[in-house]
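Bit of a strange request maybe. I'm writing a small parser for structure token strings and I need a real example to test against, not something I typed by hand. Could someone generate the tokens for this chain?
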Amino acid sequence: MGELETTPSGLRCEACGADYAEGPYPGTLAFSEVGANFAQELDAQILPRLVPALDALEPPACSERVIERTARELGIAVGNPVWEGRADIARLLLRGKDTVALDVGCGFGTFATAVARSARHVFATDRSPVRVALTAARARAEGLDNLTAFETNGVRLPLGDATCDLVTIIGVLEWAGVGTGDAPAAQRAMLAEVRRVLKPGGVLLLGIENRYAAHYFLGAREDHTDLRFSSLLPRRLADLQIRRARGVPFETPTHGRAALKRLLADAGLAPRIAAVLPSYQQPRFAFDEADARDGVRFYVRHAFHAGSTARRIAGRLLLRAPAGAVVGLVPSYWAIAAKGDQPPPPVPGVVTGSPHCDGAIKRIDWRAGLLRATSRLTGEPLREEQLVDGWNARRWAAWPLHASARAARRRALAGAIAEQLRGAVSEASAARDELLAEANAGLELVAGTLDAGVVERCRALLAELPEQVPCAREHGDLILNNVVVADGGAIRLVDRPEREAPAPVGRDAATALLDLCGIESGVKQLDLARGVDGLERLRGADAAAAGALVRAGFAGVPREQVPAALLAGVLRHLAAHRALTGVEGFLAAAADGRLARALAALPA
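Reply from user aminoacidic:
Good idea to test on real output. This should exercise your parser:
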């Protein structure tokens, strides 16, 4: 735990005098017993593109957005492995600031950098030297000097006994046996090492797929073998299947709920299980198995994506099935295991909203009926809200089996949101220059990925704003995920700021309108480009409902200037969130007049 000093031969710990080989990035260590055996397409760009991009940042910076942007420029889908929201549950398991954590198989450094915000020190290991370099570069860019990354395998850990309060192994245990010839023994060895380095009462957080997940029974390919039914077969038959199909032995066993508990208990760790949905790779919601009844109901009403007829039917089955059976068939688990005789306390319900570092950690206290939010960046409490019994508006609008019923619900939502916007109208106004400064800040975030002509036409459209812009009390994130629909159809806005200050009209109306218009396309969240597509298709009663929302949300703005005000609202939202899905397509539609034509077609 001492400071590392550079020596001619590598690095030396000032506390104990131990010498180490220097790793692939300044301040990292190397215990090169094995080379990398797992890589994604983006790995080839870590040293030539990602690390230099991170090194160019002035800390503290949001490293995940740089990785996302670089991947987008390269045409590589990186998705959620870089999202800090995946690590919310790990931070909730820490026992205060004076704690030491270890992330085994740190990958792109997401868990390690997130946990470093709440711990005294974090060790991060990976087999891949380029991933070790990326993790260390992320920590530097984030301004975190309490992280040490080193290259090693996870079967033998170069740490002292009883060193760590928390160990995280996310999507790694099942790969421990690759190349060893005895995968079960390698997994047991990894867990034995975890127990050794944990302090008494310390906790392991393990993310792993469920061997008996429901989608495997329906013929989905197993995540590690890419073969159908391999996880469901007895191990010997699975080995024969994989040798025949791939020419390699079966080396990536996963486990069902009971077997996973036995594996952890045999390693001397007292386990409990939490369901994580839709998966630990894409965690939107997690709950302790003891809270399965409340957790399943909340998940279906607030997080389940009913984007097709098959999924709507599946959602109805989830609500009717015994909650314990649902937990036995979920795609993956968080397993939490403590060193000692007593298992850790129940895992709180954890909701992953915004995935980025400037979002909030949201946990549910089922007994108190409260949702508590804290800042990911600072750990400071943000708000405490009473749980509202109802449906997330996106899930509610997409739930009916018939398209006509879904359209009726969208119209009802448009009317209810319009009423909220009318009630928020303020007597204040804002100068155009003030609004332009904020909108242009959002435009600058994406200008580098846009055609120069699109940027110039967007600036010209913004210049059409009136000298004085009407104001309204602003929610600030009025997307459908922040609207709850009660059983009677009344709505309530949640995730509100402490004080809804007056701001130029447009931001709330723009996000609500585009989110509503994009639902039927099947998107899981606000997608600005899909919203414009849906807006263009509106006819009849649907167009009338959208027109009423526009009139309420842009009250006091002349009709011909509404496209400029809506564009400004989206750009202000982008400036606040720094990343929005579909923003490039939306800006292209604003620049070429599609947005203006779609708005003009709505009833006056």
